[in-house]
UniProtKB/TrEMBL annotation:
Name by which UniProt lists this protein: Malto-oligosyltrehalose synthase
Positions in coiled-coil regions: none
Gene from which this protein is expressed: treY
One Pfam family from the record: Alpha-amylase
InterPro entries associated with the record: GH, GH13_cat_dom, Maltooligo_trehalose_synth_4, Trehalose_TreY
Family annotation (PANTHER family): ALPHA-AMYLASE FAMILY MEMBER, MALTOOLIGOSYL TREHALOSE SYNTHASE-RELATED
Lineage: superkingdom: Bacteria
Species assigned in the record: Microbacterium thalli
Domain (Glycosyl hydrolase family 13 catalytic): residue spans on this chain: 11-695
Amino acid sequence: MTAPVSTYRLQIRPAFDLDAAAGIVDYLRDLGVDWAYLSPLLAAAEGSDHGYDVVDPTRVDPRRGGPEALTRFSAAARGAGLGVLVDIVPNHQGVAVAAENPWWWDVLRHGRDSAHAAAFDIDWEHGGGKLALPILGKTLREAVAAGEIEVAPVTADEAHGASGVARYFDHVLPLADGTAPAAATTDPATVDAVLAAQHWRAAFWRDDAAELNYRRFFAVNTLAGVRVELPEVFDASHAEILRWLREGLVDGLRIDHPDGLADPGGYLDQLAQATGGAYVLVEKILEHAATDHAEQLPAWWATAGTTGYDAMAEIDRVLIDPAGQSALDTLDAALRSPASPETYEDIVRDAKRTVADTIQAAEVGRLVRCLPADVRDQLGEDVARDAFAELLTSFSVYRVYPPAGSELVAEAVAAASASRPDLAEAVAVLAPLVTAGDTELSRRFGQTTGPVMAKGVEDSAFYRYPRLGTLTEVGGDPGVFALDAAGYHRAQVQRQATWPHAMTALSTHDTKRSEDVRARLSVLAEVPQRWSATLERLRAVASTGDGRLDDLLWQAIVGAWPASSERLHDYAEKASREGGIVTSWADPDEDAEARIHALVDAASGEARAIVEEIVGEITAPGRSNSLAAKLLQLAGPGVPDVYQGSELWDLSLVDPDNRRDVDFAERRALLTKLDQGWLPEVDDSGAAKLLVVSRSLRLRRDRPELFTRYAPLPVVGAAADHAVVFDRGGAIAVATRLPVGLAARGGWDDTVVLLPAGRHVDALTGRAWDGGSVRLADLLDTYPVALLAATTPTAATSPDATVPAKENA
């Protein structure tokens, strides 16, 4: 396996296709990047900017450039010395527009007899032999009676092999062979007769809990689960991907949502065999990251590691002041409405149970149908459904992989039984069945715990518990507030020893807030009383009527400021609907949303002076945190990924805000100035961050011998707690933490770091330092971070070696 030294994530989309990406590979090389990391490339739904709704796995998306553009991009990357990593989506396909997906269209047309019927995870028996499509805005009877459904012979552009179609507004569905009417009609009797003969059944979207009979991605009806556990489906859905590897167009793969698969470990084994052991990463969320009891990635999986959310949680927390927790807890308690859950744990439990009872109800129903008949009869369907929902709610991780994880199952059983003593007996009956080896029930239970966790925690609880926005991030547990330097070092020692080629990340296409927004918000833990007073002033100007939602929105505004009103309105609408307290996606509340948008308007109006006052106070320490976080990531163990554009300050919020266009021309120009010897200030330009990114990436790429181990270095003095310092085997990273507290105590004073013997050159400033005791006040007098590289005998004539060593303390 050839692993990258670093990666740079590019979002390939119609507005920035593969040819556009090929035009910046020289910039990526100059930045110091080792591999380009591309978002999904297979043909996706029209209008998709993310590419995770693949509609045809057999071809590169023509709107992203097509196969010829992939060949051109790969050649350009090779010419720049870059490897290529590509994101793939084995779990599901996009089915929003049936005609776009040839496999789905064929299943709708031919039903169980379709050549692709086995590709999709469909419970035909539950549907009475039909595939249920919850696409209607009312019941089928009402839609037919209203003349909203038309059946007709096909037009030339609708054919796709079918002789007739049914139309419902934008939906066009194929009719089974021999069932098309002679002419287009909405006559209820004719429509009823035709629809009765189809292999699919249209249903009211609100009835999906009872009607839905295909597995989907989370709660998205337009993403249908694919059965890659079947060899023929794996082969058909991976033929194009394997061609890329076979022909040398790409070097590695990032696997989206492996927990959705029937057998993630088996899939990775099959992929490793098919690729000859290529570099493969998995998008896997590990719970309780940054603690001594963190969930571990299954060691037997054929993967180099995760995509780095666990590292993100560690880096974020070492830069958060633990002393701020109590005051922020007090503020949260004051903001909580009487009807709201008091603790984060209660918020999570309520949210997950709601998910299990609503948007995952169809999957829970399928679990009930998977029970042995005698067990189903013993428990009764209602009790079985209730017990399954409670057990799913009580899982503390996304998934277990039997026979491993028995202790986590036992914990979930105990938690479910304690929460619902009336279900204890039923839960005890279900527990051995959901972990009983390779059964359909155990596989499906494993495929359901993840969606309940993701929708309940990431997409609900995180928007209901805004105590400190930094903490409500993918892969993080807000219950873990901070991490001291010693705890951070332990985590990195373990990372170096166990998963040295796993990815590390600070921003991704899925993060709720970009790294620089989180770095700024982390400052609030150092000034909690100041934030409490500011929030009180802001709420006096504009409030949604819900204290926690106010805190969430005002933190987002302060964290992303300056931001356009349009961006903030989009975020506020999404965040409030995801939280589901005062409004929701299913039932938007117009009055509540009017208050929400009024709050956003106030940010650039009556409350603007208050916003800019607090932003002015936390921006500088936030930038110190940003540079520290970036250095810790780029110099630390693992394969660091730089998300597109984040080499400068990036104050993005949740997707799609974080997929905005990147100004690469600006970045090229700034990099050229840096290479001409410019040492920028830590100012609005973001050039200081570009300096840290480029020098760190180049050092890792050009001098890999300096990054072979991980060892904390001693920091001695009154301000020692404000530094994180480690030696990677010749490359030494020095980062400032808790900058507000550091300034309040008067700076570094006599605090020193003890460097190994020999001469070390700071890759950021070019200054040289001899081993021994070095004052941090001197080392960090230009930037809040330093990256020292040990010189070698062959470097005696290099320009760096001519820089006189600064006198050490």
